[in-house]
Specification:
There is one protein chain. The protein is 37% helix and 13% strand. The protein folds into 2 domains: 234 residues, Rossmann fold; 84 residues, formyl-coa transferase, domain 3. It has 387 residues and is of the alpha/beta class. The strands form 3 sheets. Strands 3-2-1-4-5-6 form a 6-stranded parallel beta sheet. The protein has a 3-stranded antiparallel beta sheet with strand order 7-8-9, with helices on one face. Helix 6 crosses helix 8. It is built from 18 helices and 11 strands. The C terminus is likely disordered. The relative contact order is 0.13.
């Protein structure tokens, strides 16, 4: 079975999260991803968070899967020449250095395009390749902040909080993947096979999710504030405590769904009340509706409450920890809990591949490689990782 990106070579020059996350997706769907790492340290992600017995991060084993690791010092003339040689037979370069860094190393877009006019260079940075902020350092957390997400996250009377994963980086990576594939499609339809560069900014990736907030501010002067677990202006949709101290997320904000929800919790009077027939009317009484639903959930343990609402076809779900996910039958049925083998022979559960393609699905061929593992294969030079 031929995977969608087989025959496509991707040179990954990024570190940590954003560009490598995009590279992981390319690799899962058949792209030959050549991960370029510092000869002495490798990608810093190799040593982040929880380490296995070989002092390598388990996160790295997921993020680096299906990739080939080569070690090249991009700061040296020799390293730059090696990149230029690789680019001759490369389709895509993906990087997440601060703008101007690769140009200082003589391997920026213009330099690589002169060698391979068909090259697609996908560039992820905090603020993009242009504009007054382009030279500022910008991690995903900063992108989430200036992109508007952090301002909205948390309780109204508390400081803004963060999501527990690098959401800004991951969003930028997903835009990088989609932008790269669009550029690839454009190149392959062009008789001259002309490439281009793709400019992805972390803060713009986050900003793109802010629904109608910009026109709401521009025309109405509205600034959306933190609202905790509710959805402002959309009701009812919240988190409710059950009798066993566990929490359910219940979304009863569709008109017909609301009616079914009220009947399921034994409040048919509210289901038939004209006040609550539309979202606008429900939003005006959101505190009361949350109180009614919360009083019902507190009567039942989570599984019993969820069963009742599932049977009524209400969007409902428990708040899962990673332990809950690891034992969930639906995750198992959809191949999202996959067993892989580490270099020392240990078996470990890793996340499956997203999305699911019916005819040419992605797969996990190997976990993140050792530093410089593919030097001989790719660079045709033994022991380069020690230079």
């Amino acid at each position: 079975m031929v995977k969608p990106l087989e025959g496509i070579r991707i040179l990954e020059l990024g570190t940590l999260v954003a560009a490598p996350f995009a590279g992981k997706i390319f690799a899962e769907f058949g792209g030959e991803v050549i991960k370029v790492e510092d000869p002495k340290k490798g990608d810093p992600l190799r040593n982040w968070r929880v380490l296995h017995d070989d002092n390598t991060s388990l996160w790295w084993r997921v993020q680096g899967r299906n990739k080939k690791s080569v070690t090249i010092d991009l700061r040296t003339e020799e390293g730059q020449e090696q990149i230029k040689e690789l680019v001759k037979e490369t389709d895509i370069v993906i990087e997440n250095f601060r703008p101007g860094t690769l140009e200082r190393w003589n391997i920026g877009y213009e330099a690589l395009k002169a060698i391979n006019p068909s090259i697609i260079m996908t560039r992820i940075s905090g603020y993009g390749q242009t504009g007054p902020y382009r030279d500022k350092a910008g991690f995903g957390s900063v992108g989430e902040s200036i992109g508007g997400l952090r301002y909205l996250t948390g309780e109204p009377d508390q400081p803004p909080v963060r999501v527990g994963v690098p959401l800004g980086d991951s969003l930028a990576a997903l835009y990088a993947v989609s932008g790269t594939l669009m550029a690839l499609r454009s190149r392959d339809r062009d008789p001259m096979r002309k490439g281009q560069y793709v400019d992805v900014a972390l803060h713009e990736s986050v900003f793109s999710l802010l629904e109608g907030m910009l026109p709401e501010y521009d025309l109405k002067g509205l600034v959306r504030e933190r609202t905790g677990s509710i959805l402002p202006g959309i009701a009812p949709s919240n988190t409710y405590e059950c009798a066993d101290g566990k929490y359910l997320v219940i979304a009863g904000n569709g008109d017909s769904i609301f009616k079914r929800l009220m009947r399921a919790i034994e409040r048919p009077d509210l289901a038939d009340d004209p006040q609550y027939a539309t979202n606008q009317g429900r939003a005006e009484k959101v505190e009361y509706l949350d109180q009614v639903i919360g009083e019902w959930t507190k009567k039942y343990p989570l599984k019993e409450a969820q069963k009742t609402l599932d049977e009524a076809r209400i969007p409902v779900g428990p708040i899962y920890s990673i332990e809950d996910i690891a034992h969930d039958e639906h995750y198992q049925a959809r191949d999202m809990l996959v067993k892989a083998q580490l270099p020392d022979g240990a078996e470990v559960m890793v996340p499956g591949v997203v999305p699911k393609l019916s005819e040419t699905p992605g797969s996990i061929e190997w976990v993140g490689p050792e530093l410089g593992q593919h030097n001989e294969e790719i660079l045709k030079k033994k022991n380069y990782s020690e230079s």
